[in-house]
Design a protein that fits this description.
With 116 residues, the chain is mainly beta. 3% of the residues lie in helices and 47% in strands. The chain is globular.
Length: 116
Amino acid sequence: MSGPHHFELVLTPGGPGTGKPVVVYLSDHAGKAVSSEGVTGVVTLLHGGKNAAVTIRPDGIDRLSGYVHFIPNAQLQIVVTLTFKDGVTRTATFTPFARPSSAAAGSRDGHASHHQ
């Protein structure tokens, strides 16, 4: 979650040199879709001192998408930065391939291991 928004990151793993879709869905805390109209975004992949950033664009009512190159591993961090049409920027960090900590394993919503 980032401010009043919930970001859901959806990845399709790929091998070396293979661009795969990355989709970010937007909703509010109640799960109601938030319009992606006028939203701009960047997905930044962080791993081992190497960073790669790709632009994501509105692609549907409540989502933004683009293509990224990555190999799944536990150390990969993905930072999603979205700027809404009112000029407010929100950021969420995900660790989609990290093993859940014991605290996260006991979380009620099951999302604690995926973002900070």
